Amino acid sequence: xxxxxxxEEAGELTRRGQAFALATVVWRQGPSSGQRGxxxxxxxxxxxxxxxxxxxxxxxxxxxxxxxxxxxVPRLLLLGAPEQFGAxxxxxxxxxxxxxxxxxxxxxxxxxxxxxxxxLVIVGRSPMVGTLxxxxxxxxxxxxxxxxxxxxxxxxxxxxxxxxxxxxHGDEEAVEQAVAARPAYLGLVGSAxxxxxxxxxxxxxxxxxxxxxxxxxxxxxxLGPTAHREIAVSILAELVxxxxxxxxxxxAAPTTPAVQDAVDPVCGMTVTPGxxxxxxxxxxxxxxFCCTGCRQSFEADPSAYLSTKTETRC
Length: 314
Known about the structure:
Elements: H1 4-15, E1 20-29, E2 39-43, E3 48-50, H2 57-71, E4 75-80, E5 94-98, E6 106-114, E7 119-123, H3 127-138, E8 142-146, E9 160-164, H4 171-180, E10 185-188, H5 192-204, H6 209-212, E11 215-216, H7 230-244, E12 262-263, E13 270-271, E14 279-282, E15 285-288, H8 292-300, E16 312-313
Parallel strand pairs: 4-5, 7-8, 7-9, 9-10, 10-11
Antiparallel strand pairs: 1-2, 1-6, 2-3, 4-6, 12-13, 14-15, 15-16
Helix pairs in contact: 3-7, 4-5
């Protein structure tokens, strides 16, 4: 995957609301398999699509990219042996990651996070719904409008924000479906009296009280007497306020456990354990290597490299 394919994949991940990082080689010192302009996508699970460099650079870039996704802050990496760069040559703000690649090449890689846009689901049909949808789309949010009868828990997830604006047309059913999705935010458009009746009905149906307590009713900030469409402004204002306070945020955690990195005992390079990584078992301990050359050096004289105690137990 390269060139336009990378951009198409990035677009597809964005449409699916999946967090990822885009890594780009901005400088190289040969010999290096990575070229200026080489790009790769790294997902939160650590999957890499594209090409950023060989066995020396790839595990380091994957590790750093996952941290970039978690932190939401871009990072500029300089990959190479420390002796290749004097301390004065490394600019402020750049992260130097020592790698001992046999090719003696070096790379500068820019990694930027691409986090999913907020996902808003609005249930109902009214002028207020249309206004709220237009305002959310103007902010770049992924916005979907569903009729009450069509809406189900499958339309939202734990990172979604759901606003139920059925306004008396199946409020109970819509809120029950929304509660089942456990969204980051759930608001019901209606008076406090109407909201109490809906939540009381659902409590009698056995919906857990801790889930009902998370329903915002009336939805939106209290702006006093407002016109029908102005309610949309109050709801959007509440959502923006909650997001700014960190109370409503997309979930960007990896969906699979992170693999613990190992360190090549010969060259000191970070290696991701796995079927593709050269490996040697010595006295009940598994050692991983960046390349076959390091593995052969270790096999020839393990005691010469064991002082570092870099190991992964079998």
